[in-house]
Write a structure and sequence with these properties.
Elements lengths: L7 H4 E6 L2 E6 L9 H16 L5 E6 L21 H11 L5 E5 L2 E3 L1 H8 L2 E5 L3 E3 L13 H8 L2 H10 L3 E2 H7 L4 E3 L5 H14 L21 H10 L4 H15 L2 H17 L1 H16 L17 E4 L3 H12 L4 E4 L3 H20 L5 H9 L1 E4 L10 E4 L5 H14 L5 E4 L6 H8 L5 E6 L8 E5 L6 H13 L3 E5 L7 H17 L4 H9 L10 H8 L1 H13 L11 H8 L12 E4 L2 E4 L1 H13 L10 H21 L6 H11 L9 H8 L1 H15 L10 H9 L3 H8 L4
Bound molecules: 1,4-dihydronicotinamide adenine dinucleotide.
Length: 719
C-alpha cells in the first residue's frame, strides 16, 4: 500500500455516542463506495455487533453529501460483483436493533440502496434521492429493485428507476421513501442522533425493509404486461430488466427477486449499451481536463455578466446566469427588441412556474438578477461579456472593437458564434488574450453542451475560468480549437450535405429522419430535416452564404441547394409554418412543395431520381462522412480526444448515449469496416469534390488494425 492509499478506518469511522453506535462515512469529495469504504462499513458493523450495550445504529456521512454511488471504474472489471456490498447491506438490514440513516446532499445509486437497507430514514431539506443507474445502462444492483417498491408504490419505484431522475426531500417524504424531513439540525450526524433518540423513545424497533409488504395496491391487472411491452422498445436492456425485477418483487419472494436482480445486473453491465454509456460518462469528466490547465491555473472572478443581443440565443444565455443568481446585463440595439427579449425570458420563467418546475419566489429572484439596457457603456463593469448578435463577421468584429475599449481591464470577452473565425473576432478586440468562444446550443438555458473555443491567443486563465464556469452552469464543456463550425457544426456540415443529396435523389424528409431516429438502427433524437426546421432554415442558409463569402464551400453548384432554395422561398421551417415539412399548429406533415423543389433542383443538376434508397444507406451516408470529419478534427488537433467528440454529439446533438457517440460507434463498427464503406460510396457515388476521401488518420488506424481507444491513450500520453 502506498502512502496516498487510504485504510478502511480512514474513510469509515465507528464511534459510540452514549447508547448509540454511529457509522460516519468520510471519503471526500463524494463518499463514493470504493473498496475501502465497503471494507470500512464491514468493520463498523463488526464493532456495532460486538457492543451489545448500544441500543441502535446511526449511519451518516461527513462532508457535503451522502454516498453518491459506486465506483463506476470497477464495473469494467470482468470479475466485478456487487455481492460483498450486498452482503453488508443484508447484515445492516438484519440487525436486531434499529438502524437509522441520516441523509443530506445527494443520495444516489448505491448510496440510496444503503439508505433503503436501513430501518428508518431522516433527510435534511437539501437532500436529493435517486437511482440513476439507467443512465449508464444498468439497473440498481444492490437490491434497489426489491427494497424500493416496499417503501414507495411499485409504479413510482419503476418510474424513478426508469427515468433515473432524483427527487427532492419533500417528494421523498410524500412517497414514503423517508420518514422525516429535518429542518432543524445543521448536519446529518446531529440530525441522525436526534432522530434515533426520538424514535427510540417512541419504542421504535428493528424494521427490516425486506420484511415489509410490497406496495402494489391498486395495480391494474395488465400493468406489468403493458410496462414490459413499453420497456421492450427501449434500446437499453436495463429498462426491461428494471420492470422485470419489480414484477418479481410484487409477485414472488425477496430471495427470488435478489437472484434475478443479480443476474440482470451482470447482463446489463456487460451489454454494449452500458459499456458505451459508461464511456460517455467518463468522457464527460475527462473533457473538463485541459492539458496545461490545472488546479494551479488562476481563475478570474465572475460577479457580473453582460450579454449582447436579446434574440434566441442571447435571452437563453442570460437565463443561465440568472438561474445561479449572477447579476446580468442584457444589451440590445432598440427598445422594442429589448422588450421582446425580456418578455421571452419572463414567459419562460412563468411557464416554469405554471408547470411546477420552479416556485414563484425563485422565479422572481432570478428575474431580479436581470437588467436590460440600450447603452453599451453599461457593460463597462462586467467581468464577462458574451456576444450573441447576428452571425456576421463584420458586425461581430466591430462590436468586439468597441467592447475591447469599453469593458474593464481583465474582463473576459466571449463570442457565441457558431461557425465564424474566433481568432479574427478576437483580434478585432485589441485584447485577444481575453477572448474565448463560448458556443451555447439552442435552447441555451436547457442544452447541456458548451463548446469552449480556444483561440490562438486565449490566455490559460480565461480558458480555465470558462471551463469551470460551464460546471457552475450545469453544463458539460468541451474545448475546441478554431475552425469552421468547431467540433459539432463542422461535423454536422457533411451530415447535412448528404441529407440534402438524398433528398435530391428522391428520399423524403420523413424517410431520412425516420431512418436515423429508428432506435434499432441509430436512435438520433431528431433527424437532420426536423433539426434544421427547428433551428431555422434561414439560420442554416445564412451560415452557408457566409461560408461561401469566405471561400469555404466546395466548387459544387449543387451543394446544399435545397436549404438555399427554401431560404429564398421564405420557407424557414417551423417559424414560418413550412420548411422541409409543413406545420399545422404543432403537427408536422409532409410538405408537397418540398418534393417539388427537390425534383426541380435534381433536374437542374442532372441528379438521377427514382431508385429505391434503403434506410441502411441513409444511415451510412449520414454517419460515415460525419465520422470521417471527426477523424480529420482529431488529425488537426481541433478536438483533443475522441471522447470529446462523443460528448459534443451526445450532449449537444441528440446522438444516443447508448451508442457512445460517433467515434465510439466507429470503433464498434470496426475502423477497417468504416473505411471500406467510405470507399464503397466513393466508387458508387463518385468523388469529384472529395466528399468520400477518407481521412488520413482513419486510413492509418484502419490499416494498423488499431482502435480509437489506442488513439485516445496515445493522445493522453499513456504508453
Ligand atoms: P437572433 O437573430 O435571434 O438574435 C440576434 C440579436 O442580436 C437580435 O435581437 C439583434 O437585434 C441583436 N443585435 C444585433 N447587433 C447588436 C448589437 N450591436 N448590440 C446589441 N444587440 C445586437 O440570433 P440568434 O439565433 O440568437 O444567434 C445569435 C448568435 O448565436 C449567432 O452568432 C449564431 O450563430 C449563434 N448561435 C445560434 C444558435 C441557434 O440555434 N440559433 C446556436 C448557437 C449559436
Amino acid at each position: 500500500m502506498n502512502s496516498t492509499q487510504k485504510r478502511p478506518s480512514d474513510v469509515v469511522r465507528f464511534e459510540a455516542r452514549e447508547t448509540l453506535g454511529v457509522v460516519l462515512i468520510d471519503s471526500p469529495p463524494l463518499n463514493v463506495l470504493t473498496g475501502q469504504v465497503i471494507a470500512g462499513l464491514a468493520d463498523a458493523l463488526d464493532a456495532f455487533e460486538r457492543d451489545r450495550s448500544l441500543r441502535a445504529l446511526v449511519v451518516c456521512c461527513a462532508g457535503r453529501t451522502f454516498v453518491v454511488g459506486g465506483d463506476l471504474h470497477a464495473l469494467d472489471s470482468a470479475e466485478f460483483t456487487s455481492a460483498p456490498y450486498n452482503h453488508i447491506l443484508a447484515r445492516l438490514e438484519s440487525c436486531d436493533r434499529p438502524v437509522f440513516c441520516a441523509l443530506h446532499g445527494n443520495v444516489l445509486g448505491g448510496g440510496l440502496e444503503l439508505a433503503l437497507a436501513c430501518h428508518y430514514r431522516v433527510a435534511l431539506v437539501d437532500t436529493r434521492l435517486g437511482l440513476p443507474e439507467i443512465k449508464i445502462g444498468v439497473l440498481p444492483g444492490s437490491l434497489g429493485t426489491q427494497r424500493l417498491p416496499r417503501l414507495i408504490p411499485a409504479q413510482d419505484a419503476i418510474s424513478m428507476m426508469l427515468s433515473g431522475q432524483a427527487i427532492d426531500a419533500r417528494a421523498a417524504f410524500k412517497s414514503g421513501l423517508i420518514d422525516l424531513i429535518d429542518e432543524v439540525h445543521p448536519n446529518a450526524l446531529e440530525s441522525g442522533v436526534r432522530f434515533a433518540e426520538a424514535q427510540l423513545s417512541r419504542g421504535a424497533g428493528a424494521r427490516p425493509t425486506r420484511a415489509l409488504p410490497v406496495k402494489a395496491e391498486g395495480l391494474p391487472r395488465d400493468y406489468f404486461t403493458k410496462k414490459l411491452a413499453e420497456a421492450e422498445k427501449s434500446p437499453v436492456p436495463a429498462a426491461r430488466a428494471i420492470v422485470e425485477c419489480v414484477q418479481v418483487a410484487v409477485e414472488d419472494s425477496f430471495d427470488v427477486g435478489e437472484q434475478l436482480e443479480a443476474l440482470r445486473f451482470d447482463q446489463c453491465r456487460r451489454s454494449k449499451q452500458s459499456t458505451a454509456m459508461r464511456h460517455v460518462f467518463f468522457a464527460e469528466r475527462e473533457a473538463r481536463q485541459v492539458p496545461g490547465i490545472g488546479a494551479g491555473t488562476d481563475q478570474r472572478v465572475l460577479r457580473k455578466i453582460g450579454v449582447v443581443g436579446a434574440g434566441t440565443m442571447g435571452a437563453g444565455i442570460a437565463m443561465n446566469f440568472m438561474n445561479i443568481g449572477i447579476p446580468t446585463v442584457l444589451l440590445e440595439t432598440r427598445q422594442e427588441l429589448l422588450d421582446k427579449g425580456l418578455a421571452n425570458i419572463r414567459a419562460t420563467y412563468n411557464s416554469g412556474v405554471k408547470k411546477g418546475r420552479l416556485d414563484e419566489t425563485t422565479a422572481r429572484r432570478r428575474l431580479e438578477c436581470l437588467e436590460g439596457t440600450l447603452q453599451e457603456g453599461d457593460l463597462a463593469d462586467c467581468d464577462l461579456v458574451i456576444e450573441a448578435v447576428f452571425e456576421d463577421l463584420e458586425l461581430k468584429q466591430s462590436l468586439m472593437r468597441r467592447l475591447g475599449r469599453i469593458c474593464r481591464q481583465g474582463a473576459i470577452l466571449a463570442t457565441n458564434t457558431s461557425t465564424l473565425d474566433v481568432d479574427a473576432i478576437a483580434l478585432a478586440s485589441g485584447r485577444a488574450s481575453d477572448v474565448v468562444g463560448l458556443h451555447f446550443f439552442s435552447p441555451a438555458h436547457v442544452m447541456r453542451l458548451l463548446e469552449v473555443v480556444r483561440g490562438a491567443r486565449t490566455s490559460p486563465d480565461v480558458l480555465a475560468t470558462t471551463v469551470a464556469l460551464a460546471g457552475r452552469l450545469g453544463k458539460v464543456p468541451v474545448v475546441s480549437g478554431v475552425c469552421y463550425g468547431f467540433v459539432g457544426n463542422r461535423m454536422a456540415e457533411p451530415y447535412m450535405r448528404e441529407a440534402e443529396f438524398l433528398l435530391l435523389e428522391g428520399a423524403t424528409p420523413q424517410q431520412i429522419d425516420d431512418a436515423v431516429q429508428d432506435v434499432l438502427r441509430l436512435g438520433m433524437a431528431m433527424g437532420p430535416c426536423r433539426m434544421l426546421d427547428l433551428a431555422g432554415i434561414d439560420v442554416g442558409a445564412k451560415t452557408l452564404i457566409e461560408l461561401g463569402k469566405q471561400g469555404g464551400l466546395p466548387p459544387d453548384p449543387s451543394y446544399r441547394v435545397v436549404c438555399q432554395q427554401l431560404f429564398r422561398d421564405g420557407r424557414w421551417g417551423q417559424k414560418t409554418g413550412s420548411g422541409y415539412y409543413r406545420y399545422v399548429g404543432r403537427a408536422r406533415e409532409p410538405e408537397p412543395l418540398t418534393s417539388d423543389v427537390c425534383e426541380i433542383l435534381a433536374n437542374e443538376f442532372d441528379i438521377r431520381r427514382g431508385r429505391t434508397i434503403s434506410d441502411g444507406e441513409i444511415c451510412e451516408r449520414l454517419m460515415l462522412p460525419l465520422i470521417n470529419e471527426g477523424f480529420r478534427i482529431l488529425e488537426e488537433e481541433i478536438a483533443m480526444r475522441p471522447g470529446d467528440i462523443d460528448v459534443v454529439w451526445t450532449a449537444g446533438y441528440g446522438f444516443p448515449a447508448h451508442r457512445g457517440g460517433p467515434m465510439w460507434m466507429a470503433n464498434a463498427w470496426g475502423l477497417p469496416n468504416v473505411l471500406d464503406r467510405i470507399q464503397h460510396y466513393q466508387r458508387t457515388l463518385g468523388n469529384r469534390f472529395g466528399y468520400w476521401t477518407p481521412a488520413k488518420l482513419l486510413v492509418e488506424l484502419a490499416q494498423q488494425g488499431a482502435t480509437i481507444n489506442r488513439l485516445a491513450a496515445s493522445k493522453a500520453g499513456v504508453a
